[in-house]
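Posted in: Protein Modeling Q&A

I'm a second-year student putting together a small comparison for a lab meeting, and my supervisor asked me to include a predicted structure for 18710_t:CDS:1. I've never done this before, so apologies if this is the wrong subforum. The sequence is pasted below exactly as I got it from our records. If anyone can share the structure token output, I'd also love a short note on what stands out.
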Amino acid sequence: MRKEFYTTLSQDFSQLLEDADDYNVIIKVGENANTRNFFAHSAILRARSPYFKRALSDQWTVKKDGIISFTKSNISPTVFSLILKYIYSGILDLTEVPGTDCLDLL
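Accepted answer (user: helix_wrangler)
Welcome! Here is the predicted structure, written out as tokens:
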């Protein structure tokens, strides 16, 4: 017998992102007044994204007290939130996203 629990796994990883428990990455996203700090887990980011595998290397990041910090000023917090949710859960929900933000995903 085989039972796959992808839905539960996806929900658990989404919850991990929302709770920001035991994070070891802080990503400051946006510019000027439109900025937001995102709290994430390097193991998940590296495993799910070739970009983050490179970005979290020693040459791109600053690590202090076990926390990796870096800034992404070239993307809006809204768009980055969608990307991060996809990385964690495999879900990309664009139903409530303005068209301009959808284009920024490209």
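A couple of things worth pointing out for your meeting: The beta strands are 25-31, 34-40, 62-64, 67-72. Residues 2 and 20 are 32 Å apart (CA to CA).
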